[in-house]
Design brief:
CATH class of the largest domain: Alpha Beta
Helix content: 25-40%
Shape: globular
CATH topology of the largest domain: Rossmann fold
CATH architecture of the largest domain: 3-Layer(aba) Sandwich
Structural class: alpha/beta
Mean pLDDT: 97
Low-confidence stretches: none
Bound molecules: NADP nicotinamide-adenine-dinucleotide phosphate
Strand content: 15-25%
Number of strands: 13
Largest sheet: 5 strands, parallel
Order of helices and strands: EHEEHEHEHEEHEEEHEEHEHHHH
Distance between the termini: 58 Å
Number of domains: 2
């Protein structure tokens, strides 16, 4: 078995820190490239740690020496920084670029939301530069959907806002540990020729709003308080949010594509299953309490979603 030599940029995020740990445990040689001033104290000891100034192309090329795969996991504020990799990679021996995505193949409206637009511009630039690319598409993180009220599911207060057909439409979810295990299973030793050009979908569990309500009822020994929002209303609210540059547009878009049943289809059909991984289920996450927290939301963001619930009938 040949191990791929991997470089990661964006090691310290909510999702990326777990992915880095899993890659470090996979046996594949791992180099973390970080910007000056990054906290590198929690990195596993077997990781090679290298500071990089992305504006210095000659230095970036040097730091990508002896690397087969570049995996970017940069957070929202840094998505455009990946263009530095797109410009440098053709001058290296890197064989595969994996840009920061971790979502789904959104439609035109989804890709008009600034961060998604930036992600698609990076992917387009990589294709134009002839760089073999693969993306990983988990749909939504289970911790984001189930531990925050962003999509109308309020675990803290046992409340659910059904939007459009979300009661009966499936939502594709993956927990952070599953996504981390998937990165290791995909990239540590798979021949790169088998990965190039693929949109690798991950599917740990698919859940409907009704199934979540059932799990909440078992967890809390009381049916959740529910409200309903029509499909027409979310479509209109999303349109206005995008037009006015509302920073919640991405969350509203995620609500809409669940409400219409599009989300589960947007991960595509090329599903990568992590072999021998015991997948989470709604009962294990909700009833037995295995659900981990998402990063903490600022109070004003939580209030925004609480208001959306209160405005529904
Ligand atoms: N589908 C979903 O439900 C979902 C949920 C969460 C995340 N995601 C996706 O997962 C990917 C990683 O997200 P994350 O939440 O793990 O990221 P994050 O917490 O924001 O992590 C940011 C990482 O990127 C690095 N970085 C470098 N330059 C940056 C800049 N200018 N601004 C911000 N960060 C910068 C940071 O470096 P330092 O260490 O130097 O700070 C850090 O290591 C993103 O593509 C995000 O969209 C998807």
């Amino acid at each position: 078995m040949t191990l791929n030599r991997i470089a990661v940029y964006g090691h310290r995020g909510w999702a990326s820190s777990e992915i880095v740990k899993a890659l470090a445990s996979s046996g594949a040689p791992l180099r973390v490239l970080h910007r000056p001033g990054s906290d590198i104290l929690s990195l596993p000891v077997n990781v090679e740690v290298v500071e990089v100034d992305l504006n210095n192309q000659a230095s970036l090329i040097e730091k990508l020496k002896d690397i087969d795969i570049v995996i970017c996991l940069v957070g929202h504020g840094g998505v455009p920084l990946q263009h530095h990799f797109v410009k440098a990679i053709p001058k290296t021996q890197v064989k595969l670029f994996v840009p920061s995505d971790l979502a789904a193949r959104y439609d035109k409206q989804g890709n008009s939301i600034p961060v998604n637009h930036q992600k698609s511009e990076v992917e387009k630039a990589a294709r134009l530069a002839g760089i073999p690319t693969a993306v990983v598409l988990p749909g939504n993180f289970a911790e984001f959907v189930l531990s925050t009220p962003a999509l109308g599911i309020d675990y803290r207060d046992n409340r659910i806002q059904f939007i459009g057909d979300s009661a009966s439409e499936p939502l594709n979810l993956c927990t952070r540990p599953y996504v981390a295990a998937a990165y290791a299973s995909i990239f540590a030793s798979t021949p790169i020729s088998q990965l190039a050009g693929r949109d690798l979908a991950l599917s740990e569990l698919r859940v409907t709003g009704n199934q979540i309500a059932e799990a909440f009822a078992r967890k809390f020994h009381a049916a959740p308080i529910t409200r309903r929002e029509s499909k027409e209303h979310i479509v209109q609210a999303l349109g206005e949010a995008i037009e006015t540059g509302n920073p919640m547009s991405l969350a509203l878009y995620c609500r809409k594509i669940w409400a219409t049943g599009e989300q589960a289809r947007m991960i595509g059909k090329d599903i990568w299953d992590v072999e021998d991984y015991p997948k989470a289920t709604l009962p294990s996450l909700i009833v037995e309490g295995a659900l981990e927290p998402y990063r903490s939301l600022p109070e004003e963001v939580r209030n925004y979603f609480t208001n959306l619930f209160d405005q529904c009938e």
